[in-house]
Specification:
alpha+beta; 2 domains; five-stranded antiparallel β-sheet; 2 helices; 14% helix; elongated
Length: 192
Amino acid sequence: MTARKQKGNTNPHPVDSTTRTCCGGIGDHTAECPPALRIFDTAGSMAPVNLDPTAPEIVRWDELTGDVDIYHGGDASKVLDVPRPSWCDPDEDFYGDSIDSFGYGSAVARVVVSNGTGVSDGESLDPARVTVQALMAASGYVHYGIQICLSRATGADKDRLWINSKMTLTPAEALELADVLRAAVDLTGVEQ
């Protein structure tokens, strides 16, 4: 397209009238027409112009739609809103797929079970056992438990697998179990 003359002026950019309504037609700009709006000044003297400012409710929504992952690295205290008790071992923190499945644990006490099946490699024996661990979880409220785990091996010598059966008791249930176990031992009259 060639530039058209109007009132003695030559328009070097005849097609920008599609975005400007000052003259009403393509290629009909005059020297009196205002310059086209520039977002960035190529000489660097003008700052960028935001032609579509974001509404406050959109800004707030963008904040709410951000990442919600809780990065804990195995440290339950980064998820729970209660401090770790002094009797809890940081290496015994437990966690799962929900905040309700996070908590603190004590070191694990083990009682070897002499007639349970363990695993032997010919040089050492990993015996069957009962483990006991005190737990504290805080999912809206703090609650305590005593976890008991019965561990024994099953299967052929080379293919033995551990079977772990866990149950968590309330402190009151754990005390009742301790009384029942003591009563059973007393009933036999033997402590060995």
